[in-house]
Amino acid sequence: MVHHPRPPVTRARPGTWRVPAAGLAAIALAAAGSTLAALPAAAAPADPDFGPNVTILDPTMSVDAINAALAAASGESEFSTARHAIFFKPGTYGSAAGAANPATATGIVLGTVGYYETVGGLGASPDAVVINGALHVDAVHGAETDPWNHQSPGSLTQFWRSMSNLAINPIQRPINPGAPGIDPAGADPHQLRWAVSQAAPLRRVDIQGNLTLMGRYGEYASGGFLADSKVSGQVLSGSQQQWYTRDSGIGTWNGGVWNMVFSGVQGAPAQDFPDSPSNDTAHNKFTTLGATPISRGAPFLTWNATDGYAVYVPDARTNTSGAGWQTGAETGTSMPIGTFYIAKPADSAATINAQLQAGKNLLLTPGVYSLDQAINVTRADTVVLGLGMATLSPTNGNAAITVGDVVGVKLAGITVDAGAVTSPVLVQVGPANASHSNAADPTTLSDVFVRIGGPHPGSVDTAIQVNSDNVLLDDIWSWRADHGAGAGWASNTANHGLVVNGDNVTATGLFVEHYQQNQVVWNGNGGTTIFYQSETPYDPPSQAAYKNGTKNGYASYKVSDNVTSHQAYGLGVYSYFSQGVDIRVDSAIEAPKWSTVQFHDAMARFLNGSGGINNVINDAGGAALQGNDAAASKYLRSYPPAGTPEPPATGGDNQQTITATVPEAPGEFSWTIDATDHAVVLSDAANMGSYLQSTGQLKPVKVSDTRAGGPAWSVSGQVGDFTGGLSGKYLGWTPMVLAPGAGAVAGGAVAPGIDAGNGLTAASTLGSAPDGHAKGTATLGSGLDLRVPVDTAPGTYTTTLTLTALS
Questions:
Q1: Could you tell me the superkingdom of the organism this chain comes from (predicted)?
Q2: Burial of 548 (0-12, 13-18, 19+ CB in 10 A)
Q3: What is the pLDDT of residue 14?
């Protein structure tokens, strides 16, 4: 049976199409049997309505106008309800003349990135937008005359902002030198300051100089996230207490307080973590993994003059190192803006859900969305992208957003505020006992931030619940408020920040704080966490109020007793009990003691207040308690100790085995072209001396086979001659498996027949699978190579590629 579901949009890197030049202008291929003639160039699509809170800047604007727009967006207070997104169209902005001496610089782009402000470039790569100047975040201190002794609050509350997909040539100078409380001195030459804590990610940035993550006067900062980026100079972490860097390239790294974690970072410092109190100066606090086991960049908005706006969705990658856009390893899907419903804050949940049910993806423009029911994502591979810290706020004890039992959903750039009516859960990925997942296309949550209290009173049982397998969590901050509206032990009640029930779930950059029971509960097998940061709740009124049965307090990170496989790297748990009562947590981390449940580089720290943490993991690591620094921090390099047994095999003399057989469903075989537009436009023909060459990529072909027994299948292609009398034999291809599954094996390469052979005029295999292969879904693709005689007349030529599936 051949099944043709609604196909997704064109798979391509954004911004790769070019205006045809003289010579062989373009070749159009129409798949599945219909000829599509080349069309004349069309006018750029009209800009969509992104609403009043999105500002689009372009290189024709004056620097003064750009800086005024940045200033207008940067002045929100910590719990404001206003939201802003600033985008730069491709081009160069500002003057580079003052780079060596910022005090003399004029004509630079200069702006503070404030609360609820996201700044991004609209190019296909970060280097498509070059900023001469600084888009920065400074620390806040209490006294201009003596800042070293009046550092509060520093950067400890510099939350809820982001910057992405642009390059900065750092030229930072003071914006308002007399402004009280803000670093007045700017930054050193060739240095950008990004002094933040949680929920302030840097993604896909090219810092063409140095990056400092702290205020000029050493003000405290409490953790951040850098991914898919390049810093050509030094990263100075300074007073940053913890930080996670993923899939990036840096010149050097300088500093480290308690927990610095790197995965897939070229130029990262070597692994070096203590196994002793914090007064051990022989070791740094570095956890360094050579590669990230699985990662996916966050979706982002793009624009070009030909195609207008789109959303680019990076593919998931495994064992990654360095920024994919820099190394050429990045692949993904460019989704035209017309495939999205562009929601406004006044839209109801019912309106949004109707659009999702109609097959749209979702773009949430900046603002606060009051929801009397959850936004329900029920279609595989749906993209939900928030701009400007778009915020979902339940009003009826409901969830904010749920994902059905489907694969490949992407949620990114979303903030969720709990409502005053207690919600059982705010973000739910998969229903209970979810059964659908795809390790090659994981449902992914990127920059998803949850708040219980703060802007207004709120209450929840579990903030984020993951029931599906093979889910990726990338930069999550789940926060029960320790200050702001409704913050109090009996008011913003919340038990768990994250509960993972699915298997093979990965968290890269996980921040969970202040919940009243186990902050993270991990029930699924095969889980992996790379970087964890957590503070205990500040406000338990007594030990009796904060007790788990006979245990003092609740472990922050709890791996359930039934789990037999788990890996975690770079974990920091901190205590601050602020009520003047000696409150203890028996263990910062609890886990079953099996050799297959492993922790690498964990620490516990007494921050302030009273009491503390008695052990790092289970009964190991020692106590981090009120006292001098040696007593305040404890480090545990590895757990469990050598010689720990594996989990016991199931079965035994006192057990019975009950076997039930469920007949296997017949299943089906289906294939579809993975694009709405079946036209393939090859590159401009280049003169290679003895022939003209034009290349491109076949639109992907998705093959799904759920049949019992895995019968063999194959997909082949064949072309006829081009219009204008050009022989089809000149076209060749190089098949490949883009996403493995269903036993797929790529077909052999077919050379263009310019010298010999018939090229693709002879039926040729794109992909196949042997008899007995596993069930699953594969995506097939191919590079296309057209080589024609040098005397071919200029013009536009088309042919039809007919694909045939046999099984």
A1: Bacteria
A2: middle
A3: 32
Q: What DSSP line would sit under 619-651, residue for residue?
A: TBS--EESSSHHHHEEEEEEESPTTPPPPPPS-
Q: Say whether 45 sits in a helix, a strand or coil.
A: coil
Question: Judging by DSSP bridges, how do beta strands 795-806 and 24-31 pair with one another?
Answer: parallel
Query: How far apart, in Å, are the Cα atoms of 518 and each of 160, 195, 223, 495, 553?
Result: 25, 30, 21, 7, 9
Length of the chain in residues, anyone? 807
pLDDT score for 145? 65
Query: Which ranges of the chain have pLDDT less than 50?
Result: 1-42, 651-653, 656-657, 659
Identify the pLDDT of residue 6. 30
Q: Are 137 and 172 in contact (CB under 8 A)?
A: no
CA distances (Å), 33 to each of 154, 221, 301, 725, 799, in order? 64, 60, 33, 19, 10
Q: Which two tokens stand for residue 669?
A: 């075989």
Q: Which amino acid appears at position 332 of this protein?
A: G
Residue 185: the pLDDT is 60
- Preceding omega of 153 cis (within 30 degrees of 0): yes
- Encoded tokens for 424: 């059982």
Secondary structure E strands in 483-642: 494-500, 506-513, 520-522, 527-535, 547-548, 551-552, 557-559, 566-577, 584-585, 589-590, 597-609, 612-613, 624-625, 633-639
Contact 540, 554 (CB under 8 A): no
3-state helix, strand, coil in the chain (%, to 5): 5, 45, 50
Contacts of 538 (CB under 8 A, 6+ apart): 482, 514, 576, 577, 578, 579, 609
d(Cα 133, Cα 102) in Å, to the nearest integer? 9
What is the 3-class SS of 645-691, one letter each residue? CCCCCCCCCCCCCCCCCCCCCCCCEEEEECCCCCEEECCCCEECCCC
Burial 488-499 (b: 16+ CB within 10 A, else e): ebebbbbbbbbb
The tens digit of pLDDT for each residue in 515-532 reads 999 999 999 999 999 999
Active site residue 535: yes
Spatial separation of the C-alpha atoms in residues 420 and 348, rounded to whole Å: 19
Q: Identify whether the C-beta of residue 556 lies closer than 8 Å to the C-beta of residue 519.
A: yes
Given 535, 590, 646, 664, the catalytic residue: 535
Instruction: Yes or no: say if 388 and 369 are a contact pair by the CB < 8 Å rule.
Output: no
Report the sign of the C-alpha dihedral through residues 150, 156, 162, 167, in that order: positive
- Residue of 778, 4, 784, 9 whose CA lies nearest to 383: 9
CB 754 within 8 A of CB 731: no
Residue 334, SS3? Answer: strand
Collapsing DSSP to helix, strand or coil, 2 comes out as: coil
Model confidence pLDDT, tens digit, residues 437-480: 999 999 999 999 999 999 999 999 999 999 999 999 999 999 99
Measured torsion, CA atoms of residues 65, 71, 74, 75, in degrees rounded to the nearest 10? -140
Task: Tell me the CA end-to-end span of the chain in Å, nearest whole number.
Answer: 9
Residue where the block lists tokens 């940035």: 205
- Beta-bridge partners for 510: 476, 532
